[in-house]
Amino acid sequence: MELVARLASEAEQVRERFLDPGWRPAWERALPEVLALLEDTEPWIRRDAADVVGICGSPGELTLPSLLRRWQAEDDPAARLDVIVALGQAVVRQPAGEHAPAVLSLLQELLGAPEAQVRLAAVHALAPSHPDLPEQQVDLLLEAVRDPSVEMWRHTTSMDAGTQGVQHRTAALMTGPSTAFTLGLLNDHPAEEQRTGALAQAAGLLAQWRSPTSVLLPRIAARLNDPACEARFRAAELLACLGPAAVAHADEVAALLGDNAVRTTRKQEAVGEAALWALARMNDPRCLPGLIALVAGARSGFASNSAHYPATWHHAVLPSLPEVLGYLADHVERLLPVVCDQLGTRTDQQVINRFCQVLAGWGPAAKAAVPDLLSLLEDDRHWDGAALALAGIGPAGNRARELLLARAEAGETHTELAAWAYWKVGGEPGPLLEALERAAAQGSIPRPALRKLADLGPHAARFADRLRAMTTDTDPWTRVEAAHALWAATGDTATAVPALMTAVQGLAEGDYLPVMLPAVRHLAQIGSAARPAAQLLHAVPHHDPRLRSSGAWRGFTQDEKIRAAVDELLALSG
User: In this structure, are residues 484 and 453 in contact, taking their beta carbons and an 8 Å threshold?
Assistant: First the structure.
């Protein structure tokens, strides 16, 4: 029956052209048998049958009579909930038939039923035809969801969920950034699952919308003192996601730095680690001692690698330690010793490369790391990470010029990287131009080479024709980087600005793709000539939905970065 339910559900979600031509005739033949299962002697079969009938595509005129008969005879509490939900799904499928008015009347009556979960099921059933009803019935929903009887839904097929699943499915009935339901969930409750579930709902709402922040923030911060480890962790992790917006609660977060209680997850993240991450996002130096200890090798629940999560739901996870370090450029002086120590003692190439990326991101402020990078540059296993870091540090790393030039002239793997780093620390452009000419000789200029061409500025003018042609490439990343390199090499804004604008058209309508961030930053670099782009994006700062493509904490930082870039564009383009 579960397989049938999945097939019926998928058949209603996929486009008609992807549906097997034989599906609908086969389903029409099977429907009478499925409807007959509503009369089975086993409650679980009746529950499954009601769920299938509810989600299938058959019109209400074929399904409502059987569902009504089942409702009148059903005595299993969980099956009654499944039948109510199925009635609401079936009544909106046209033609609904002569029983539709009676079904809608019944569902309206059930809003006043004595059982809390029946009332909740009625709202779920009526929501498809009355989308404003859930917000009008918030008190009813909260009473049901926060009642111990909510556990009954674990035995249903239509929801098959405990407290947190019911919270999630019910919150999904709301439209827009409504906070009433979430605020009600955040009220104190004796059950741990209720409290942690409320924080999950708050996270889900804040991951989608910016406006609820000020309303929900005090309630979230109050959970930092929750007796449950998971609730304290989720509260601190969510404050980390909000970062600068939550700085008023930094003292409360700092009080948790010594909280060593760990979650029951595979990584066993500690509450104190979530607090450390939150303080790092607030740029608060109280995170530094703990962070230094973790980088030095203390047991850590932080991610071992950079991870991306879908934006469909908020995942309460921690980033990797190098990612945390990347947000602390204002505290480089205190962090450099432990990072440099890792360069000298670690042997894992991936780990070394991640720390080198941190140094590159810190830029000239990391110049004290140059001696350690020089040693790494002489190591055939790890020199490429050192080259990347030195390129980020820039002229302050000019002591590496000869070593980098030797790498660039050796004709080995990553010659282009060595030549680029040589140029960035103050060398001559010739070796990089030669390396890029060799790369371009293979045909189109590879995308990674385009950014290096942009760094060469006017020295790359010889590539202008090829870059101009690439600004119409079908790949948006290629268009963006080619347009930027063309502008940097020639000052051609007539070609570069329209090409960059093709990548940000959707941003004006609230869509977000990762390629939009470099595109906006490049437009800001161009300045006043990018005024058409500024006019296109002038309303972006006022958009309430978060601009993101990822879930978890990264979705929040994506939103912050793209908005900061747009603000800079608007300021510089006049």
Answer: no
288-295 and 271-281 are packed helices; what angle lies between their axes, rounded to 10 degrees?
120
- Give dist(CA 499, CA 44) in Å, integer: 59
Residues forming beta bridges with residue 270, ordered by sequence position: 262
Question: Across the strands, what pairs with 311?
Answer: none
- Decide if 64 contacts 97 (C-beta within 8 A): yes
- 233-285 pLDDT, tens per residue? 999 999 999 999 999 999 999 999 999 999 999 999 999 999 999 999 999 99
CB atoms within 10 A of CB 431: 21
Region for residue 383 given its phi and psi (left: phi exceeds 0; alpha: psi -120 to 50; beta: otherwise): alpha
* Residues facing residue 209 across a β-bridge: 545
Q: How far apart (Å, rounded) are the C-alpha atoms in residues 556 and 552?
A: 8
Within 13 Å of residue 197, how many CA atoms lie on the same side as its CB?
Answer: 23
pLDDT for the residue 13: 58
Sign of the C-alpha dihedral computed for residues 181, 81, 108 and 10 taken in this order = positive
Q: Are the C-beta atoms of 156 and 47 separated by less than 8 Å?
A: yes
49: exposed, middle or buried (Cβ count in 10 Å: 0-12, 13-18, 19+): buried
d(CA 93, CA 61): 8
Lookup: tokens for 486: 């063309």
pLDDT digits (tens, 9 = 90+) for 69-103: 999 999 999 999 999 999 999 999 999 999 999 99
- Token pair belonging to 95: 């033609």
**Nearest residue to 514 via CA among 308, 317, 350, 327:** 308
Whether omega before 95 lies within 30 degrees of 0, making that bond cis, reads yes
**pLDDT at res. 568:** 97
CA 156 to each of CA 86, 213, 358, 384, 422: distance values in angstroms, whole numbers, following the listed order: 12, 34, 50, 57, 65
Phi and psi at 181, nearest 5°, equal -65, -45
Q: How far is CA 373 from CA 91, 355, 381, 384, 385, in A?
A: 69, 11, 13, 10, 9
Report angle CA 452, 454, 456 to the nearest 5 degrees: 75
SS3 399: helix
